[in-house]
């Protein structure tokens, strides 16, 4: 399979960094973007130290100016975009600051649309593009105390379907991967927040809130998500578009 230039947002840590390392090991050229340039550079440096190809960019997906300025710095066109940037805030809606609610929507939904819109003209001109949104099990189901996150992740599915129709005449695809919990710093923070919100120990959050709905009962790995991305980038997936790829250990089976 041809090596591709892959831009990953929010790749300074967590899922984005994990996918970046795996795809680089498979030979793809990675641009690691993150709100923190220091974090992005650390991921890119680790990839290069392992023999891969990577560069780093500071990018605020909630800002048109930042997105456009970052893309202008790229030496090669973006062939694959992975919209991964995200954050979490856990609180009942009555206690949820609207400024924080808006921030989550701006980064995880509007931000994905913003970066997608920015790279689409180049993809259309070259008649090739692969766009992958990192959704969540919360693109499909709800949990208490996560109203903004759930709303944003649900919105990604609608965004993917619309863009799939708008790009159907070109060799461009867009899909959303929806995993359950991946053991990342973000999830570690959620465990602490959920423990406070529910008034229970952190171990109980993992066993009774996070993993209990999953018949397989295990966290999702970076390697699983990167493998799915690798498949969606490749020629075997050229007619898979606008789809939701659910990686939930059986959560939504029944």
From TrEMBL:
GO biological processes: monocarboxylic acid metabolic process
Record carries keyword Transcription regulation: no
Pfam families: adh_short
This protein's UniProt keywords: Oxidoreductase
EC number: 1.1.1.30
PROSITE patterns xrefs: ADH_SHORT (PS00061)
Molecular function terms, GO-annotated: 3-hydroxybutyrate dehydrogenase activity
InterPro entries: 3-OHbutyrate_DH, NAD(P)-bd_dom_sf, Sc_DH/Rdtase_CS, SDR, SDR_fam
Record bears the keyword Oxidoreductase: yes
NCBIfam families: PHB_DH, PRK12429.1
PANTHER family in the cross-refs: 3-OXOACYL-(ACYL-CARRIER-PROTEIN) REDUCTASE, 3-OXOACYL-[ACYL-CARRIER-PROTEIN] REDUCTASE FABG
Family from the record: Belongs to the short-chain dehydrogenases/reductases (SDR) family.
Name of the protein described by the UniProt record: 3-hydroxybutyrate dehydrogenase
Species of provenance: Natronospira elongata
Species classification: Bacteria, Pseudomonadati, Pseudomonadota, Gammaproteobacteria, Natronospirales
């Amino acid at each position: 399979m041809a090596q591709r230039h892959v831009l990953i947002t929010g790749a300074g840590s967590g899922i984005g960094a994990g996918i970046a390392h795996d795809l680089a090991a498979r030979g793809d050229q990675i641009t690691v973007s993150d709100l923190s340039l220091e974090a992005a550079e650390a991921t890119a440096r680790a990839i290069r130290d392992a023999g891969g190809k990577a560069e780093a960019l500071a990018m605020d997906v909630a800002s048109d100016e930042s997105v456009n300025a970052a893309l202008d710095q790229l030496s090669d066109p973006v062939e694959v975009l992975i919209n991964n940037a995200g954050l979490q805030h856990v609180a009942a809606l009555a206690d949820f600051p609207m400024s924080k609610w808006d921030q989550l929507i701006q980064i995880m939904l509007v931000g994905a649309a913003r970066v997608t819109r920015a790279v689409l003209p180049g993809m259309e001109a070259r008649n090739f593009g692969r766009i992958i949104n990192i959704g969540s099990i919360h693109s499909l189901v709800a949990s208490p105390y996560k109203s903004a996150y759930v709303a944003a992740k649900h919105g990604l599915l609608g965004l993917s379907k619309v863009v799939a129709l708008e790009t159907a005449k070109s060799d461009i695809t867009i899909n959303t991967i929806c995993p359950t919990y991946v053991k990342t710093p973000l999830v570690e923070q959620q465990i602490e927040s959920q423990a406070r919100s529910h008034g229970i120990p952190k171990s109980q959050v993992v066993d009774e809130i996070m993993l209990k709905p999953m018949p397989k009962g295990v966290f999702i790995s970076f390697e699983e998500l990167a493998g799915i991305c690798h498949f969606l980038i490749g020629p075997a997936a050229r007619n898979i578009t606008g789809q939701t790829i659910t990686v939930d250990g059986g959560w939504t089976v029944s």
